[in-house]
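Lab meeting tomorrow. Look over both lines:
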Amino acid sequence: MTDNEIVSSSFSAIVNAPIETIDLPRWAFTLPDAEYQGCSPAHVAAGFTTAPDGTRMSINVEIIGGSLMVQHYVEKLAEKDRLILESVSDVFTPSGRTTIHVHWELSVKALDGDRCEFTNHVRSRATDAMLTLLDKQGIPFEVFKAQRQPMSIAHNQGETPLFAASIERFARRAA
């Protein structure tokens, strides 16, 4: 799915905990606000609710590249070692409010009996609303994409080891 793709980035970090103690959905849907904020200086708040159909939803607020984002992550796949979330996120820019589609996939795989590799993969695509906003401003999509990619990639790279450390703490408490 590369239509209107803005960025796809993936980073990994070590979790010093056995794989059987890790439960990514439980971690993601119980992550305290302060713990979320500690995983990136760009993280503002986190909370939890449900989608209209009752599916679990994580609400994350962060600032990336100077734009406030409110992400409505709906659970698409929830396994202890793999979690896929999808969001049509609100983006508040100096030029107005728009949306962006974000696919967030978290996974762990055992390296040995005591360690796992955590992978944080984020993929974003422009929605029609975003393309309309860019068009009204006379900004070609490729220019926007080139400007947005470094900020999004840096954000993912910075939060991945901090998420891994949070998952490790959660696994140790649960063990």
